[in-house]
Amino acid sequence: MTQAKPLKNKKTTTDSAETILELKNVCKSFGDNDVLKGLNLSVKKGENLVILGRSGSGKSIAIKCLVGLIHVDEGEIKIFGTDITELRNDDLNDIRVRIGFLFQNGALYDSMTVRQNLEFTLKHHSPNVSSAEVDEAILEALESVGLEEAIDKMPSELSGGMRKRIGLARTIIIKPEIILYDEPTTGLDAITSREISELILYVQKKYKTTSIIITHDMACAKITANRIMILKDGVICAEGSYAELEKSEDEWVRSFFI
What we know:
Organism: Flavobacterium aquariorum
Distance between the termini: 33 Å
Mean pLDDT: 91
CATH topology of one domain: Rossmann fold
InterPro entries: AAA+_ATPase (IPR003593), ABC_transporter-like_ATP-bd (IPR003439), ABC_transporter-like_CS (IPR017871), P-loop_NTPase (IPR027417)
Structural class: alpha/beta
Keywords: ATP-binding, Nucleotide-binding, Transport
Low-confidence stretches: none
Strand order of the largest sheet: 6-7-8-3-9-10
GO molecular function, one term: ATP hydrolysis activity
Protein name: ABC transporter ATP-binding protein
CATH class of one domain: Alpha Beta
């Protein structure tokens, strides 16, 4: 397997960057189950924000709210300065095409080759793209994840780590400004998990993406995060760098780092 070109483990700094994504007092309930209870967070352009939390804390619900897959009960979700909670579906789709989503399992179409998976995504996003542009974009995306040789393979022929890489290639082929990663290293061995984490950094640097990374994997968080937020009972209970939170005086916060 060809490896993506490595970058030094140096995260992009974003201190002076503009806020590209913001949640204000977001609430979401399902019947009597209050999942998000006034969630507030913001992400700066070019930043990797990692969100940690125990199972059932609302991480996955929050990320689905971000792309309008779940409608919030209260609050604002501003992306590129626009409150998406007030948008009609057509206008919401104009925002969605600027956002990439890497699902836990890669979410590849099993009946399509790697080439066809990437081509389908690109043509759905850009219907008027030429054949030459499609070929060029596919090769660039596969080069970025170090899997040029997998172009004509079926998903069933790929390992779990390779499927994640191809899923990421399919995400970056549309050149999204924001990428949402949902448990990007789940189910992978430690070595492959590290490779995926370093690839997230590589994509951040090469494509200047802004990312939210939902993970239980503390090694992934340490490698990828510019900043970490910890979600508890539907609200953010702690925020800071990996080093800051690891030394927190709060025993519950420190428990993530043991």
